[in-house]
Amino acid sequence: MEHSERNRVNVLRDFQGSFFAMSRLVSFPWTFLEKDLESNKSSDLISDILKQTCLHSLCRKFPPSVRFRRLFLSELIRRQEAADCDPLDELYDALAEVVGAEETAECYKSYLLPSGDAVSLLENVALISEGTTGLVTWEAALYLAEWALAHRQTFAGRTVLELGSGVGLTGITICRSCSPDRYVFSDCHPSVLQKLRNNIQLNSLAEQASPAVSVEDVDWTAATEERLKQIGADTVIAADVVYDPDVVGSLVKLLSKILRCPSPGAPPEVLICSTIRNQETYSGFKQQLEKAGISHHVIPGPVSRVFPYNRVSDIEMIKLYR
Ligand SMILES: C[S@@+](CC[C@H](N)C(=O)[O-])C[C@H]1O[C@@H](n2cnc3c(N)ncnc32)[C@H](O)[C@@H]1O
């Protein structure tokens, strides 16, 4: 494939991945489109972008929010008009469809996997709603899922317990791509648990023979060693669970129980992936780990980019030991 054609294919893929994950509009490859419009004076690339986004069958099935589609289409129109290219009827038709549509509190986001498959999730539009942060996918979940795709052996054939699963992106990606034997999603918020169950169904995980999947109410403040023994995880993971200084103490106590209660054979492998928004909270977490006799080391980040997210964020993944 010629270099410029390869660029075009990559740009279309970037537009598609960013559109379905509802990434910030500034992160789309607009410069490539701008240059193409300037040099070719044709709307062909815009037409192809439309086919890969608003007119794609995935958008009919799992549409991103009305507001996002409206902003995206308006930006395409603005770019096209600025370059003085032929107007494209389907662009205006697509905009007309969303201009009159009602805004909703929920929307679909789809995260494209390297296999060409997508993980589609029903998420809330607002970052915090119903008193929880668990109804949207956070960057640490995408980071951990990317890491898992590059380290499938950490999950293959294992029983995995995920703490604070939220809407399920990390777990569904691992179930789809890393061949665990059993996957236990968990959280404690009733609406999060309900959405998690719906998303697992949406992605047809429950219908598959393997892995065995369950959703459990595991509250860090209440989970007993007995309960952890029953789950019998040999890999425990969590994304973006270190953010509230008030719950860090109970999380550390739970991690301590997990590391004390090995499944038969080897002690469980414990991986915690965190976005460091507040250095004091994160250092406090590490100090409490140390006090509980838990040491850690930092795991290098994902090597290949799969999902679109803001890579400027400070994200760290650590492995815990007793
Ligand atoms: C910031 S969200 C992260 C969700 C998901 N892991 C992600 O990264 O997208 C934190 C999650 O931890 C859950 N959580 C908070 N406190 C908890 C507790 N005491 N027990 C269990 N889950 C808890 C919340 O319900 C929420 O789903």
Along the chain, the helix and strand elements come as: HHHHHHEEHEHEHEHEHEHEE
Helix percent reads 40-55%
| Class by alpha and beta content | alpha/beta
Strand fraction equals 15-25%
Main beta-sheet strand count, sense and barrel state = 7 strands, mixed
Radius of gyration: 22 Å
Bound molecules: S-adenosylmethionine
Order of strands in the sheet with the most strands?
5-4-3-6-7-9-8
The first-level CATH class name of the largest domain: Alpha Beta
Instruction: Count helical runs.
Output: 12
CATH fold category name of the largest domain: Rossmann fold
Please give the oligomerization state of what you see. Answer: single chain
- How far the N terminus sits from the C terminus, by CA atoms, comes to 52 Å
**What is the total number of structural domains?**
2
**Overall mean confidence score, pLDDT:** 93
- Poorly predicted sequence stretches spanning 5 or more consecutive residues: none
- The name of the CATH superfamily of the largest domain reads Vaccinia Virus protein VP39
Describe the structure.
The chain has 322 residues and is of the alpha/beta class. It folds into two domains: 102 residues, no CATH class; 214 residues, Rossmann fold (3-Layer(aba) Sandwich), CATH 3.40.50.150. The protein is built from twelve helices and nine strands. The strands form two sheets. It has a seven-stranded mixed sheet, with helices on both faces. Strands 1-2 form a two-stranded antiparallel ribbon. Helix 5 packs antiparallel against helix 6, helix 7 packs parallel to helix 8 and helix 11 packs parallel to helix 12. Bound molecules: S-adenosylmethionine.
